[in-house]
């Protein structure tokens, strides 16, 4: 589990050194926003710890405290001379703001799919862990196959159209999974996993392209880090929804044949919620507006900000 990613990480380092040209970075004279970083870290830890312990009272308290901390972080960043996160990227850049919102919604609606289906395939269908794993590989395999195509497509077609289409297909797949039952065939599951993989591919690459292309070069690091944060927060929320449903519907009971009906109910409700989230995500994706209307030309993944935007920033 850890050795394989380590090998891939080394391969990425080699590719970066060999294939990515050096770039000149503007020297930073700003001071590090230590207070903002501390507030953000503590708030995010509180939210994550609270979500993982819901529906217990201590979990609710931690979530509220974490949200209050995030509000304090925003308040401080709006007033800091050298903020760790420039809030103007969200306030004045509609494309950036709604693309990140679409990202967090997408991961909230999809991350727990593998978790839920792995349990379903083992407990309801009676498959071994290995067989369940092979079945679930269908989704990331399709995503890996079509992601490069989706990235190139978003260089030629308005990215919000491609990304919104992908999230729409994902919503359709999640809706079909809301009808899972004891008699659902493996072929049906594989087909829907393939549809989800295709939808993920159409959304993820173009959405990332949009986020990175909507900011000036000096904000690329912030944009990338913000997208990473949205991804992790969405994954956390997705698992929280699944575990909260298990806690409410199954209680503390183990998943045994005696509670299979309740387990299937929890899985179905989760997929209904995820479908609704995806529909909201489609709306957020469409609401971002046209990337090229902002004077940004996207060519093979390289963004060029219009001179007017640069002058306005200066």
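^ structure tokens above, recovered residues below v
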């Amino acid at each position: 589990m850890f050795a394989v990613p380590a090998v891939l990480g080394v391969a990425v380092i080699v590719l970066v050194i060999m294939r990515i040209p050096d770039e000149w970075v503007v020297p930073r004279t700003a001071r590090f926003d230590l207070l903002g970083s501390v507030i953000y870290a503590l708030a995010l830890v509180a939210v994550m710890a609270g979500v993982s312990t819901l529906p217990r009272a201590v979990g609710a308290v931690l979530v509220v405290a974490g949200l209050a901390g995030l509000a304090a972080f925003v308040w401080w960043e709006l007033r800091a001379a050298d903020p760790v996160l420039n809030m103007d990227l969200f306030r004045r850049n509609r494309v950036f703001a709604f693309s990140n919102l679409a990202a967090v919604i997408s991961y909230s609606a999809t991350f727990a799919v593998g978790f839920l289906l792995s349990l379903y395939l083992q407990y309801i269908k009676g498959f071994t862990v290995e067989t369940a794993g092979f079945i679930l590989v269908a989704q990331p395999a399709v995503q890996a196959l079509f992601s490069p195509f989706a990235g190139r497509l978003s260089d030629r077609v308005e990215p919000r159209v491609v990304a919104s289409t992908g999230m729409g297909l994902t919503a359709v797949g999640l809706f079909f999974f809301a009808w899972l039952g004891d008699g659902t065939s493996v072929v049906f599951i594989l087909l829907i996993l393939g549809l989800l993989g295709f939808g993920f591919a159409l959304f993820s690459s173009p959405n990332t392209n949009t986020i990175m292309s909507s900011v000036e070069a000096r904000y690329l690091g912030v944009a990338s880090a913000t997208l990473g944060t949205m991804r992790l927060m969405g994954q956390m929320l997705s698992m929280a929804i699944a575990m909260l449903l298990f806690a409410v519907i199954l209680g503390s009971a183990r998943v045994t044949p005696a509670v299979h009906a309740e387990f299937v109910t929890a899985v179905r409700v989760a997929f209904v919620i995820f479908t609704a989230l995806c529909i909201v995500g489609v709306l957020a994706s469409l609401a971002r507006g046209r990337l090229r209307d902002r004077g940004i030309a996207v060519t093979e993944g390289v963004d060029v900000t219009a001179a007017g935007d640069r002058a306005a920033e200066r």
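The chain has 13 helices and two strands.
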